[in-house]
Amino acid sequence: MQMRQSETFNSHRNRVHAKFPPGTGISRQDVQWLLEQRKDPSNYADGADGKPQYPLIDSIQFLANFYEFLSAAVRQKDLDESLLYESIGNIAINYYEKVAPWLRHFQQPGPDGAPSTDTYNHYWWLYQRWKARAES
After folding, report:
1. Which of 15, 103, 110, 115 is surrounded by the fewest CB atoms within 10 Å?
2. What pLDDT sits at residue 64?
3. Do 57 and 43 touch, CB atoms closer than 8 A?
4. Predicted pLDDT at 46
5. Which of 26, 45, 24 shows the shortest CA–CA distance to 34?
6. Confidence band (pLDDT; 50, 70, 90) for 75?
7. C-alpha closest to that of 96 among 133, 75, 71
8. How many helices (H) and strands (E) does the chain have?
9. Beta-strand runs (E) in the chain
10. Are 64 and 103 in contact (CB under 8 A)?
11. What 3-state DSSP class applies to 24?
12. Mean pLDDT, to the nearest integer, of 68-79?
C-alpha cells in the first residue's frame, strides 16, 4: 500500500492524468500513437533539466503493471481482497477503464472478452470481479 505514496508511482500517475484527465480515457487511435512513441529515441533522451525522460506509454505501463501485480496477489490469496477493494477498488476499476483499449491491444480478447494472452489477465480478472461488486 505504500506504493501509492511513492514519488515514482505518483510521477507516473500525474503524467497519465496530464494527458488523460480523470473522466477521459485512451482511445483506439491513442494506442497506435503511444506505441509509436517507443520508436523515437528522442523520447528517452535527458530533458532540459537533465532528468531522464521517457514516453507516456512507459507511465501507462508502470501503473498497469502495479495493478497486475496486486491482482495476481489477490488471486493467489496473498493479499486481503476485501481490504484492498475498500482502499483502492474504485481507483483500480477506473484505471482499467481509462486504459482499456491499450490493455486490450496486448490481451487480444477472445469471443467471451477474456484475454487470450497472459498479459494483464490477472488485472482483467480482478476488474471483472470488482466492477460486478461495485454495481451490486
Report:
1. 110
2. 98
3. no
4. 87
5. 26
6. very high
7. 71
8. 5, 0
9. none
10. yes
11. coil
12. 97
